[in-house]
Design brief:
This protein is an all-alpha fold. Helix content is about 85%, strand content about 0%.
Amino acid sequence: MSKKFFKPIKVGGATALIAITSLFSYAIGLFRDRIIATNFGTSSITDAYNASFLIPDMLFNLFIAGALSAAFLPVFSEYLTKDKEEARKLANTMLTTATILITVLATIAFIFMPSIISSLFPETTNIAQSDIINMTRLMLGSAILFAISNTLGNILMSYKHFLAYALSPIFYNLGIILGVIFLQEEYGIYSAAIGVVVGASLHCIIRIIDTASTGYRFRPQLDIKHPGFKKILKLMLPKSISLIAWQVNLYIFAVIGMRMIEGSFSAFQFARNIQSFAVSIFGIAFATAVFPSLATAFAKKEKKAYTAHIQKTIQRILFFTIPAAVGIMILSPELVSLILEGQAFDEKSVELTSLLLFFFALSIPFESLVHILARAFYAAQNTFTPMLINLTAMAIIALTTIYATPIYGIKMFTIGFSIAFIIQVTLLLTFLKPNLQEFNTRALISSLAKTIVASGIMAIVVLVTKEFLSANRLSYVIEICAGGASFFLIAFLLKSPEISSVSYILKRITKKS
């Protein structure tokens, strides 16, 4: 029965599937944020909850995520096309190593958590430190589950199995929502931390079910001398350093934000989640779907196909993310109010979060492009160049946060973020250029010009619509719909080539339903 649902999907279908499920997943993710926001607001306890992710995420990103996001899939795909038995040994070793390593590290962290938290957050109250300690200990279990689940996710992508990969984030968010709904009265903010573990379990289980429908069968194995495993270790280091640089920035955000304004770190996370909605359903979805094909094309030395995949994905990403950025900037207070306002999330919380969201929106197209450009390097098994470029961007964010935020206010959190991603995209394109063959610059400029014109007209429509409507939730929905409809209408009239992506996804939805 599982093979009927879990089966290989081609690039076009994978793109549509991931885009659709990402949209649904992030809609649920925003509902998750609303549940947390209305129950706990932007307060010291939500700051403590968000700070509790730092150590589990640090462990996972340092030792596992780098290998999975940048190194494992290209190397495993290469072995899978040449020698399935060696590919199986490599996957077994990776899965066994990831599980053992994270379990050991999580156990050590659990034991020494009081000392770790008191060192990381010396200026917070004893109550806040206690909350962070307890919730972090709860969430350490999720790091182990994600180590297993994300390894399986990369194996699934190598087999072109995308369904469980796409659905698992939905189950993760549902776990958090159910935790808060059913446990909030008894456990308070701890209900969200319990939900994280429940969601991580569901995230892992569905991928285990899908893996059973592939040709891969897991057997515990520690062949650390396997040449493929050694290659992964070599390739993963740069990406791991990049991921940790982001975690360090989150820590800086947490410390400075919690010192300046109560709830500001929570407001940052809420704004980040709204901003990342567009990044995820377009930037990450498109880049993820095309990544296996990029790796295959580069392995076969088909540089024209490799370049064509990159260009098509860049144009698709810009087509969707430029209007998203413009719309979110214009409607940032309305979006925050529509998604999060209510009960504990009051007008002060709306004002703080929408300020951060406004400047966050600038980064949407650029952060989205980073995902496809970085994967273009990973497909070529080059993780060093994007690491250096990413570290440059992370340094800009850190320095802006440390030195500019105390002077100019917390809006510098997201202004520095946007500046850093603009620089990162510029550098990635510069260093990627030698790998590209027959990149059609004229087509890119034409597509970009049409997208900018359509986005400009959309902005005018939204601003005019706002003038005629009163401030309420229904009006906010009308403004969003008017903006979206006007953009796609103008793009259709201008014959933007990326409009076909919309019709393709709609056809896939109709076909599925």
